[in-house]
Amino acid sequence: MERVYNFSAGPAALPQEVLVQAQEEMLNWQGCGMSVMEMTHRGQEFMEIVAQAERDLRDLLQIPTNYKVLFLQGGASSQFTMVPMNLLRGKRCADYVSTGQWSEKAIREAQRYCTVNVAASAEADDFRSIPPQTQWRLDPRAAYVHYTPNETIDGVEFNWVPDTDGVPLVADMSSNILSRPVAMSSYGLVYAGAQKNIGSAGLTIVVVRDDLLGEVLPGTPTLFDYRVHANNASMYNTPPTYAIYIAGLVFKWLKHLGGIAEIERRNIEKAARLYAVIDDSDFYHCSTAKADRSRMNVPFTLKNAALDEVFLKQAKSCGLVQLKGHRVVGGMRASIYNAMPSNGVNALIDFMLEFEKTHD
Ligand SMILES: *Cc1c(COP(=O)(O)O)cnc(C)c1O
């Protein structure tokens, strides 16, 4: 079977060039006689792989030297726990902004450790827009402000950075990291699971300003302490070695392409074309506020929901897969991360126009 265009929200499509290189290097990485999967994480070869991956990530995101880069396991969901455990630093409350399903999960977990002040919530609007900062009620005593720049399920994305007046800003960038420039110095901590825009599942990247480390909640497990990972260059225990290697290949791929500026240009272009098709028709619909639409995850519905199954089935037969919306919101969702080529979006658009013609 030929390769399909995979619109999965995660684990998501990887750049074909990366998969081909991984295949070429599968049995014998750069003449060392073994696969990266078989390497000790303490050996010179793997140390080189992880150091290069970190350098390239720092380069791409222009991460200042007073920020640590950690390569962890446990997924973004573990960060819902690790963030309060590490960043409360003796304080009792934290601000959270709720713009969708992932914000809600982060809030529920943080409530186990502190008083959560929901500074703003888009729930009353069914998470179809982002509350402007003028409506936020931040608590100056908060240890940090947590938000979700891109809501993978609801398809809303911030195109601005909150101003927290010096309180450390924490961002769950799982589904839009590396898709647009970030001013890292605006953040105290950024985290992202790898399986959307970085690489394969099993790796979670944390970028944290070093002055925020050092005071964990009593009883924090060793592996949940950022300091432990920072002091051991992410090698306190065995890191997800192969996932780090794949992430490193993706970073190189991005750099060769022209870096964040170029991928952002492509992402803007891909998303604009897809939303235009949806907006120009009465057959497809997207209810997200235009200014807050995600470039990465495009949710839409068909005028007649009875056609959903036919749409998905026919799309699949055309090599367009994983277009079903999340079970919580229903409808369709096309995830068009960095690795989705422009031709994949073209193929989806052609299919949608044809489907509309034959089923309207
Ligand atoms: C996918 C996702 C998560 C959860 O990631 P896991 O690695 O499955 O824990 C959290 N936040 C956002 C924004 C996501 O897209």
Please explain how this structure is put together.
It is a single chain. The protein has helices at residues 16-24, 44-61, 75-87, 101-110, 226-231, 241-257, 259-279, 308-317, 342-359; strands at 5-6, 67-72, 93-98, 115-121, 145-147, 150-151, 156-157, 169-172, 189-193, 204-209, 284-285, 297-302, 320-321, 332-335. The protein is an alpha/beta fold and 360 residues long. A seven-stranded mixed β-sheet has the order 2-10-9-8-5-3-4. The chain has a three-stranded antiparallel β-sheet with strand order 11-12-14, with helices on one face. It has a two-stranded parallel sheet with strand order 1-13. Helix 4 links the parallel strand 3 (93-98) and strand 4. Helix 1 crosses helix 6 (241-257), helix 2 crosses helix 6 (241-257) and helix 3 (75-87) crosses helix 4 (101-110). The longest helix is centred in the C-terminal third of the chain and has 21 residues, at 259-279. It starts with a strand and ends with a helix. The mean pLDDT is 97. Residues 10, 75-77, 102, 148, 152, 172, 174-175, 193, 196 line the site of pyridoxal-5'-phosphate. Pyridoxal-5'-phosphate (PLP) binds at residues 10, 75-77, 102, 148, 152, 172, 174-175, 193, 196.
Question: Which structural traits does this protein have?
Answer:
three-stranded antiparallel beta sheet, 9 helices, 14 strands, seven-stranded mixed beta sheet, globular
Topology, pairings included?
Blueprint: E1 5-6, H1 16-24, H2 44-61, E2 67-72, H3 75-87, E3 93-98, H4 101-110, E4 115-121, E5 145-147, E6 150-151, E7 156-157, E8 169-172, E9 189-193, E10 204-209, H5 226-231, H6 241-257, H7 259-279, E11 284-285, E12 297-302, H8 308-317, E13 320-321, E14 332-335, H9 342-359
Parallel strand pairs: 1-13, 3-4, 3-5, 5-8, 8-9
Antiparallel strand pairs: 2-10, 6-7, 9-10, 11-12, 12-14
Helix pairs in contact: 1-6, 2-6, 3-4, 6-7, 7-9
The structure holds pyridoxal-5'-phosphate (PLP).
The site of pyridoxal-5'-phosphate has 12 residues, from helix 3.
